[in-house]
Automatic annotation (TrEMBL):
Gene3D superfamilies per record: 1.25.40.80, Deoxyribodipyrimidine photolyase-related, DNA Cyclobutane Dipyrimidine Photolyase, subunit A, domain 3, HUPs
Pfam families (alphabetical): DPRP
Protein's recorded name: Cryptochrome/photolyase family protein
Database matches in PANTHER family: SLR1343 PROTEIN (PTHR38657)
Originating organism: Aquimarina litoralis
InterPro entries tied to this protein: Crypto/Photolyase_FAD-like_sf, PhrB-like, Rossmann-like_a/b/a_fold, UV-DNA_repair_photolyase
Length: 511
């Protein structure tokens, strides 16, 4: 009998394994395990999302006539760790060969490699057939180049997969990148279609998680679970995006709003990261939808979306595999502060942080700019230890899997990799937040004030950060304008800003 392992994020319905004729001597194994619920403290919706999707996948496999062994979290034989479970199954059954798909996380990759070294039977590793690049394509592409630049990687991917190309060399629309059109603030118009709801009853899974005393964060309404957990639901979310949101996706990609948490974002990251949707299927569906409606949907909306998936998503995965395991310990800016308690409660007077964190606790979701320019920006300005920042992002979002979480958090957002992902730190004062959102309008703090008691904390923190880290950034061309402004600043003003910043850093939960 061949034993085939399927991890919780390997729910690729289109994998070639399932296209084979039914074989009596193949058995699939899936398990809900404490090893996975406990490696960080996850949002309750994330645990439910994965368990529910795994169960649907296992039912589908059975419908295809496949043999499946599925351990729920409280299954009597569940040893709660991967190796323990595999050893037991191999002992209880006459397993002659072990097969698994390449894990996307380094820790699982190591665990399975080490496990296979102990085996006396044959084993074989297969591709997940999910990504558009191999683990090493990124390193090969950048070999000998001075710097990693996403734009070049993205252009190469467009050519390689012939996505939105006029000829082999020329992009459609005459430009590779329409990022400059993606900077609009949303002021109540255009109307945002009502969100796509799933509203499923997941009470049984929630009860199981509670009964097993799994420690989680965040909130859930067990009768109205709102994430797609089957292939059909994932496809319906994709269709919904094309028909309702794509038309303004690019324009309002960076916008934030107190009352609108999703704006025109797709919410497709969980569907893709669990592999229920293939990235190329998402890209081609969106591009084909646009192709038939070019008079209604501008190319900039579509290019912006394609770039996130064909570019950033593959780029982050490539970066991960080229840099792990060292990446996990990088802390180039030597930040050591503790993450404020309000990241777990949303109990802060700063309206932007309160909104973004409350939304994350309620929905296990925040869009990219909320993650980067609100919670990430504050963490970097207050010089939080990147280990703490990583743990928070890895736990709170339903789409958080280390390969894409750590590169975005430690790299893009916290500059802890010294600029491998980002060419300059993503930090801003309150004025950027005010420009892109309506948070400041209903905030206790005044975004226009600098160091007074009611001044926006981001303002003092921003100048303090530049002052503290100026030695590190002195040779970074992209920082020179801001550092010049810092050097020209009146000393007394800088002193006042720094005094306020230091008080905020020492007493974050007072603000
Ligand atoms: C600090 C920080 C942490 C993040 N952690 C994660 C994470 O754990 N998992 C995750 O999938 N994304 C992460 N991102 C990237 C991005 O924020 C999410 O992919 C996005 O918000 C998911 O929502 P959406 O599906 O509505 O995305 P949309 O805005 O609709 O974008 C479409 C798709 O593009 C892809 N995408 C967009 N930006 C990125 C990016 N920077 N890196 C990789 N893929 C991208 C996603 O697959 C996303 O579903 C993080 C970003 C930051 C700044
Ligand atoms: S004033 Fe400052 S703290 Fe308040 S919402 Fe605006 S940026 Fe955030």
């Amino acid at each position: 009998m061949i034993l085939r392992l399927l991890l919780g994020d390997q729910l690729n319905y289109e994998h070639s394994w399932y296209k084979e004729a039914v074989q009596d001597d193949v058995c699939y194994f899936m398990a809900e395990m404490r090893q996975e619920t406990d490696y960080t403290k996850h949002h309750i919706q994330k645990v439910v999302g994965f368990f529910s999707s795994m169960r649907n996948f296992s039912s589908w496999l059975k419908e295809q006539g496949k043999q499946v062994v599925y351990y729920q979290l409280d299954h009597e034989k569940n040893k709660q760790d991967l190796v323990g479970n595999l050893e037991q199954i191999m002992k209880d059954n006459e397993i002659t060969k072990f097969e698994y798909q390449l894990p996307d996380e380094y820790r699982l990759d190591m665990q399975l490699k080490e496990f296979c070294e102990t085996l006396s039977i044959q084993f074989e590793v297969f591709d997940t057939e999910h990504f558009l690049t191999s683990r090493t394509d990124f390193a090969n592409f950048f070999e000998g180049k001075k710097q990693y630049i996403m734009e070049y990687f993205y252009r190469d991917m467009r050519k390689k997969y012939d996505i939105m190309m006029l000829t082999k060399k020329d992009p459609e629309g005459g430009k590779w990148n329409f990022d400059h059109s993606n900077r609009k603030k949303w002021n109540g118009k255009p109307e945002i279609p009502s969100q796509k709801d799933f509203k499923k009853d997941v009470s049984k899974i929630v009860e199981l998680i509670h009964d097993c005393e799994v420690s989680t964060i965040g909130n859930i309404d067990p009768k109205q679970f709102n994430w797609p957990t089957s292939r059909k639901e994932c496809l319906s979310l994709l269709t919904y995006f094309c028909e309702n949101l794509l038309v303004y996706f690019g324009d309002y990609q960076d916008a934030m709003h107190v009352e609108e948490k999703y704006l025109f974002h797709s919410r497709l990251s969980f569907a893709m990261n669990s592999k229920m949707l293939h990235p190329m299927e998402v890209i081609t569906t969106v591009v084909e939808y646009w192709r038939d409606r070019q008079d209604e949907i501008d190319i900039s909306q579509v290019e912006g979306f394609v770039r996130q998936i064909l570019g950033w998503r593959e780029y982050m995965r490539g970066m991960y595999w080229s840099q792990m395991p060292a990446y996990k310990n990088l802390n180039e800016l030597q930040n050591t502060n503790k993450l404020p308690d309000f990241y777990w409660t949303a109990n802060t007077k700063m309206n932007c942080l309160r909104s973004a964190i409350q939304q994350s606790l309620d929905d296990s979701y925040a869009h990219h700019i909320q993650r980067l320019m609100i919670t990430g920006n504050y963490a970097l300005l207050t010089m939080i230890d990147p280990d703490e920042v990583d743990q928070w992002y890895l736990g709170i979002y339903i789409d958080a899997i280390e390969w894409v979480e750590i590169t975005n958090t430690r790299g893009m957002s916290q500059f802890a990799d010294g600029g491998l992902v980002a060419t300059k730190p993503y930090v801003s004062s309150g004025s950027y937040i005010n420009k892109m959102s309506n948070y400041c309008k209903s905030c206790e703090y005044k975004v226009s004030k600098k160091h007074e008691d009611d001044a926006c904390p981001f303002n003092a923190l921003y100048w303090n950060f530049l002052d503290e880290k100026q030695g590190y950034f002195k040779n970074n061309q992209r920082m020179s304008m801001m550092l010049n402004l810092l050097h020209k600043m009146d000393k007394e003003k800088l002193h006042k800003l720094k005094t306020r910043a230091n008080h905020i850093i020492a007493n974050p939960d007072e603000y």
